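Good morning C.,

I know you're traveling, so I'll keep this short. The sequence:
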Amino acid sequence: MSSESIKKRKPKVIRTEEGKRNRHDEQEGRYYSEEAEVDVRDPKMDYQLYKETCQDLQRLMSEIQDLKSKGSKDGAAEIEEKRVQSCVHFMTLKKLNRLAHIRLKKGRDQTHEAKQKVDAHHLQLQNLLYEVMHLQKEITKCLEFKSKHEEIELVSVEEFYKDAPPEISKQDITFNDPHQQTLARLDWELEQRKRLAEKYKDSLASKEKILKEIEVKKEYLSSLQPQLHSIMQASLPVQEYLSMPFDCMHKQYEIARHLPAPLYVLFVQTSAYSQACAHMKSSAQPYRQDKKLVVTIEGSVEEARALFKPPEDSQDDESDSDAEEEQTTKRRRPTLGVQLDDKRKEMLKKHPLSVSLVVKCKDGSALHLDFYFLMNLNILTVKAKVITAIELLSAISAGELLNPDLMLSCLYPGDDGKKTPNPANRYQFDKVGILSLSDYISELGHPYLWVQAMGGIGFPTDQPQPSIAADNSLSASHMEKTINLLRSRLLSRLSLHRQFASLEHGSIPVSSECQSLFPAKVVSKLTRWNVITYEDYLTLPYTKDVVEYGLAQDTHQYYSLLIERGTAKLHAAVVINPGYCSIPPVFSLCLNWKGERSSSNDENIRVMESEVNVFFKELLGPLPGFQLLTNQLQRLCMLLDVYLETERHDNSIEGPHEFPPEKICLRLVRGPSRTKPFKYNHPQGFFSHR
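The tokens, ready to paste straight into the viewer:
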């Protein structure tokens, strides 16, 4: 075929944009027609067509192969024809291929759509399962939930309805509904807490305000210090004139810092008690010190300071002294006795400072007490000294009354001050060979228990105590009673001293206040009054009962007396307790008249002892009862008169009666024991039985 014929067959086509668009539309329409055709066609039929087309194409190819192998000229047209048929078959195969791809694409699309649906359903299932699990957790959480209000301690229901306002309590709604009731109670709790919070804020604001005021006052007071010092210096003459020694007190308190703890407590508490007594006497001058109770500190302050110096300060000096001591020790070594003496002196060493207490009485007499602290024994001791306002008359029997060593004995019952109150001391004494502290009392003073209490020291019983702590409360609780006892002891001893001076001269002083206790005329007289020892008292036969009942101790004072009337002689032994006159004297009687008569063989002698010893309160007189002893003696004289005058007279003997009846008695004797009327009735002036 020529080129011209080919050109005629294939005319040149000018492809414009519109033509391209139309062609694309034709192809797209064809494509979508094939997609529609796929839905109509049966895949099995297409598969069968495909097999047949392949067989036909195979057959045509083999025929073309045979025709070409023959090479005949007539076979060209046939080959061309078969080629056209083959092209048609190829077109069929392409169409089938496209249909297969379209069908495959549709299958994939359907599979993808189905998979997406499955995925959507699976996701929806997972969401539902998650929601179920979440709901189960929420249900469990709700079941296990514990509200905060359960930890709050709410007020009781009764108190809630009582105190809460009606707008919160709502009793008609909440009374039968526990939930609403709890909510209402919580509302009331919240309301109360809000009120407390407001109150707390107000308190904080008030606190801040007060703190600011305190700071301002502190600054003001700190600026006053130099001004006050100058004022104190200028006021010294006024202090002396008004007996208000602030400056001296300040110096004493400066020295008091160097006192050991027990002496410091004693000084502070006695000073406080002195100021308190002055305040009670004169409220206009509350800081005035009582002149009847003076407390001072004695001793060397420098030595007290040296006790607290660190040992490093004196190392150089000690090295020199050690060298000298080594030389002296090489020459002569101290004996064992000298070493023990040094140890004893060191153990019994007193603190350089002491506290002096002066207890004054209204009559001008005074009791000086010096308190010492034994540093190694941890106890306090005291030495006493009596100063009288006037010179006392000498009385032999009163020699031991004002003895400093016996003056304060048994101020409290059983406290004789002869033994150390610290149980630990006996172990210390064993190490240095001290048998008893009583051998050193004259030098150290008496360690009374009340002295330890005034210093705030309290000891356990039968237990060693290495260190002692001073207690202010213990000292304060004993201070007033002890000072009163000291003053009472001094006054009672001075009163006894004056009474003894009269008794030694045979005179019984009876004050005008006590004259009514006795008749106007008492014939029996005191002819002898003297002191006896404790051993002599024990040997007397008529004192046996007093000794057996424990009313006679070696710390007491013993006296004997003789009352006479005619041939009758009344002997008496008297036990005076150190606590006179709160503890009365005890009399033991023996009458020598027509034989020896005592309480063991004469009931009336026993009644006379009872009248003096048992009914002593009738003889106290004006308080505090210092005239008790002389009143007892005067009653003894009166009782002897009654005894003798009421005694039966022997009518067989001629002459006047030795003891004429001068006392008025209602009955001479009474009862089987034939007791006499010893009770005196004033103002009638007669005697009767009790």
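Safe travels,
E.
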